[in-house]
Each structure stands twice: as C-alpha cells, then as structure tokens.
Amino acid sequence: MISMPQIQSIRSRRRNGESIASIARSERVSEPTVRKYLRVDDLSARPPVRRRRGSVIDEWLPMIEGMLAEDRETWRKQRHTATRIHERLRDEYGAGVSLSTVTRTVARLRREAAAEREAGFLDLSWHPGECQADFGQVDVRYRGVVTRMRHFVLDFPYSNIGPSQLMPGENAECTCQALRNLFEWLGGVPERIVYDNAAGVGRKWFDGIRLTRLFQAFQAHYGFEYTFCNPYSGHERGGVEARVGAVRRRLFVPVPGIWNLDSFNLRLPGRCLELGDKDHYRKGESQTGLFDEDRKALLPLPAKPFDVVTWTRMKADKYGNITVQGRHWYAAGPEHAGHEMIVGLRALEVEILDAEGKRVITHPRSYGDKPTDSGDPSSQLGLLCDRPAAWRNSRVRDAMPDPLREWIDAQDEATRRDSLRALLHADGESGWRAAVAGMLEILESTGGTDRAGVCLAAARHASGLGPVAYDDPVDLSEYDIAYTKGGCLIVCVWDHLIERKRSW
C-alpha cells in the first residue's frame, strides 16, 4: 500500500505525459502498481473490513458440515464430538489439521446453526378447534407390575388444555384408538391436528411421510385435516411437549396402580381438564372458558364410530399359534394348526377369526421386546394377585411343580397373594419358566418365597446360571429394599449374597 501523496504524484506525472516506466523508476514502485492506481476511479475511504485469511480447515469444511448434518438425524447421545470429527478427518481423509482447529470450527458452525434456528422462530397463532398431538412415556403399576406405557396428549393451544389417554404403545392402533376416545369425550372432532412426527401415523419415506392405511381410513372417516411439524423446529411443538410433561408430573406422580385400562382412560380427560382450572398464561382469561370455544369449533362426530382395527391374514403354525411381530404368540387352538386365519390387531386386543370370518378367540394384546405366549399360565397371574381365592381353580396352580403348589395351598390368603405377586414380578422380568424355577429354588432353600429372593433366583435361571445350594434356610427379606427393576443391581446383590454364603 503506497501513500496518498504518492498516488497523487503518479496520476499527476501521467497527466503530464510521463511514461509508466519512468514514473515507476521515479516513485520506486513496480509498473503494475502504477497501472493499478491509474485505473482507480474512486479514492473514497472504504469500511475497514478485516478480510478473512484462508485457513487449513477450509478444505475440510464440507466434510465437517456433512457430519453435523448427519447428527441432526441421530439420537443426541450418538452425535459427533469435535474429537470424533477430528479422528474421522485424520483417518478417513488424511487431513493434517489440529484438534484445536477442528474444535474451534465445530463450535463456530454449531453457533451459526443455532442462531439461524432462533432467527426463524415465529410466534405461532392458533385458532379454536386446532390442536397438537404427541406421545410421552410414563411408568404405571399395571396389574401389579411396573410397566412403561405411553400417554397420548391432544393439546389445544388456543385454550392451553390438553386431554390425554394412556396406551401400551405408539403404533397406529394405539394412536387412532386414543384419538377416537378423545373425540367421543370432546363430543366432536378437531378441525386440524398437528403431529410432531410420524409415530403411530406412518413412517418417513424419502422426503415425505407414508401414512398407514389405518390412519388414512381413520382420518377420512372423521374428516379432520392433519399436518406435520417442520424438521428441527422444536418451537412449533413446544406447547404439546410442555403439556406432556405437565400431565406426567401432575397425574402420574406417584406411580399410579391400574387394573382396568379402559376405566382409567374414561376418567383421565376429566382429570386433565381440572389441571386447566386457571387463567391462560398470555390471554388472562379462564382456560376452561377458552376451551368452551375450542369445543364449539369442533366438527361433528360421524354417525358411527370407527372400528380401530388392522386386519391381516396369517397362517397358524403346527401348534395352532399366530405370531405377531415375531415374538408374541397367540393361540388359535390345535384344530387350526396350519390353517390360514384372519387376525385383527386392536390397541388392547388380538382377535382371531377363521378363514370364513367366524370368531375363534380374542386375546389381550402383548407389547414389549420380551417374548410372550397366550398359552402360558402367567396370563392369569395378574388376575390371581387381585383375586387369590380363585387360586385352586386356576391354570397357574395346575402348572406348578408339586412342592410349590402344596406350599401355596397351605398358606393363608394374604401370604398366597404375596407369593403370587412375587411370581408375577419374576415372570415380568425373566419369563414364566425361570420365575417358577426361581420360586421353587428359594422355597426349598429358605422355606419362603420373598419377592427379592424369587426375582434374583429367576434372573439367574434366565441367564443360564445354575441354582445356589444353601446349607441352611436364608432370610433374603433384607434385599427387598435393594431390589429394582434393572438387571445390573440384581447381579450386584446376588454376588453379595454369594459372598455372605461363603462367610457362613
């Protein structure tokens, strides 16, 4: 950069006819420099913008941005750290950049992405009769066993009221059944429902959502409109997510005991409405009064309710069983072995028909990753815990080994109930066969059937470990307080028990 007087001298010399070469020699600059300042037609001051110098990281920016873009589709606990990005750049691309440079770049890109998202937030306006739908997770004590279920919330942002339903899963049957229950409670159908994602409605398909046939038919039957939130737009669903959390904290703490899910769901929307007995946080009006406006804007219910069921044809195996999701077996009966059956999947039931459409049997629907079999005696355990007097005529009693059956026969009703509850918990964790084996082991070793001991022994049998031999009966009741649902603590407690045995 040469001085302004020098520039003026160059331009003046040229106007006087001096050659460029001569000017360059006189001013001690290069000829290109002379030509440059002769071409400049505006010498006004410019803002002092600092030009960004090139960096060694520039070459690898597309790769880093690609990894961060992948993270937006990934569970937050499995996203790239700056260290992992540095390792991939080094190992996969041969990049010779330092960890500190990568760390600074990743932090900058994440700040810029967050700023872009915040800059695009809109103060969304909701009209009466419009709502958002989403699922949350809650633990309940279902028929004596702590079970992870889903609570479905239909949030009306106009009034800030969100009635809910408790469901065992998030499939299409559960979603549509929850909606039907709430429509009937509301006395009408929302004009538009905004979904967080495709759970229970369909699944992502390239750049769109492929809806399930059940939801398509359900939506056409009731006539409501539906949309989905934009990806990575948490502000668009903040209302329903807050309602999911509020319902969980207010109505599911402490963990409620539930025997009949239908009865519980009949009462649940009214309890959710009671939570809204206050003024709206922004409008200053009664939320229940605003909810009346929501209800007035609802579409009318159709003449007939929708039958929420997915029908499919399945072939029974050689034992006459139907398999759902590869791990849940439902008995149609040996007379139907090898025959094609019609299976109806509902939220809470599995209905089996023969090939001509005649009803064969209906089973409670099972959920979860643990294999289940409707033919197991354990299907009666929950009922027996509630009605121990039915013990002598139950399939559970018939399936017991003689020593265990005789011992339970001899107990009073309270002790019998406690023993059956211990068996129920062990069955829920380890399966029927392991639960029975564990209870028999504890009975023979300790003279009783306390829950902690039965569950620990059942866990050992389920994992393939053999029973532990005891010299004398052992009181394991002190471990009741330590027993939890998780398997990790079971192993720790069992190991401690073994150490105590050795000290005897």
Brief summary:
By secondary structure, this protein is of the alpha/beta class. It has helices at 4-15, 20-27, 31-39, 61-71, 82-93, 99-119, 172-186, 213-222, 238-251, 261-275, 287-296, 381-386, 395-398, 402-409, 413-430, 432-446, 451-462, 487-503, and strands spanning 130-142, 145-155, 164-167, 192-195, 202-205, 208-211, 225-228, 257-258, 310-315, 321-324, 328-331, 340-345, 349-353, 359-364, 372-373.
Provide a descriptive summary of the structure in words.
By secondary structure, this protein is α/β, with parallel strands linked by helices. It contains 18 helices and 15 strands. The protein has helices at residues 4-15, 20-27, 31-39, 61-71, 82-93, 99-119, 172-186, 213-222, 238-251, 261-275, 287-296, 381-386, 395-398, 402-409, 413-430, 432-446, 451-462, 487-503; strands at residues 130-142, 145-155, 164-167, 192-195, 202-205, 208-211, 225-228, 257-258, 310-315, 321-324, 328-331, 340-345, 349-353, 359-364, 372-373. α4 crosses α6, α5 (82-93) packs across α6 (99-119) and α15 crosses α16.
